[in-house]
Design a protein that fits this description.
Blueprint (H helix, E strand, L loop, with lengths): L1 H25 L5 E12 L16 E12 L2 E5 L13 E2 L5 E4 L4 H6 L10 E3 L18 E5 H8 L8 H4 L4 E4 L3 E2 L6 E5 L8 E5 L8 E3 L7 H6 L9 H18 L2 E3 L4 H12 L1
């Protein structure tokens, strides 16, 4: 009788431990996502966003979002908007005549709205190193900059003659080659998608409370029609790589059933705002 009782007790303990382990495995990590405005961009010559004359004579309004991801293991900032010198009353029309640009507020003031300070970030990453994504990058010098090694070499490497001071200020550097799991649990993953620049990347985030994970495009796409028609801007680093990355991106988005957020799209900005407020 005692042997039977002992056996039943042992089975009960093993079953309990298995249930606890399963519950732990399925428990969602508390990852939060915040969307902030790094600027407003009026594209006055939309034709630069095509390899041909598709958009000649057209204009389009872009937003310039950046993002804060809060994870139990630390905070990550994704992208950095326009420079704070563009926090001005009227848009600045840059010399090429392509863009009219403006930033609404400083990084410090915007972070206050979500209860954070510049010093609160463990990691910093950008989709790529174009001017509208590195604006306040220099303020993130205490964070670890996660960057594709080829993007780093192309922008601030030893062979680069003219280096952007916003990037040279970043001395804590984590160089990567390919995809990178930021916190080691699959909830926040940088995906290597070259073509727009040599080391362009996008960001996958499993946000607590959302039905679908979020997939931030960087500049793989700039607006909805770009995605539908696989439009490639005239200034991309490599057209073939861009198209390959688009295919890879769509396969991954489908596999994960992800909510795709085109970072420069005002439509996508509003969509994500509504999802985050639910």
């Amino acid at each position: 009788m005692k042997k039977i009782i002992f056996l039943l007790l042992a089975i009960s303990i093993v079953s309990c431990k298995k249930s606890e382990k399963k519950a732990e495995e399925t428990k969602q990590v508390d990852v939060k996502l915040h969307q902030l405005v790094g600027g407003s961009i009026l594209v006055k010559k939309l034709e630069v966003f095509s390899q041909d004359t598709t958009y000649t004579g057209q204009q389009k309004q872009f937003t310039d979002a950046y993002y804060v991801i809060s994870h139990p293991k630390g905070n990550l900032m994704w992208d950095a908007g326009l420079p704070e010198q563009l926090v001005v009353a009227e848009s600045f029309h840059e010399p090429s005549g392509v863009f009219a640009i403006q930033r609404p507020d400083s990084l410090a003031n915007q972070l206050k709205t979500i209860g954070l300070k510049i010093e609160d970030f463990k990691y910093f990453a950008m989709s790529h190193s174009h001017f509208d994504h590195i604006g306040h990058a220099s303020y993130m010098k205490d964070a670890t900059w996660i960057v594709q090694e080829n993007e780093y070499n192309a922008t601030v490497g030893d062979s680069v003659k003219v280096k952007n001071p916003s990037l040279t200020a970043l001395t804590n550097v984590k160089k990567i080659n390919g995809d990178y799991d930021v916190f080691g649990d699959g909830t926040v993953v940088i995906k290597y998608m070259p073509g727009h620049t040599v080391g362009h990347q996008v960001l996958y985030v499993e946000v607590a409370g959302l039905e679908k994970p979020v997939l931030l495009t960087g500049d793989l796409y700039h607006f909805e029609e770009n995605r539908t028609n696989k439009g490639v801007p005239s200034f991309n680093y490599n057209v073939e790589q861009t198209l390959e990355s688009m295919d890879k991106f769509e396969t991954f988005a489908k596999e994960k059933n992800a909510e795709v957020i085109i970072q420069h799209s005002p439509i996508a900005f509003e969509k994500l705002e509504k999802l985050l407020k639910k």
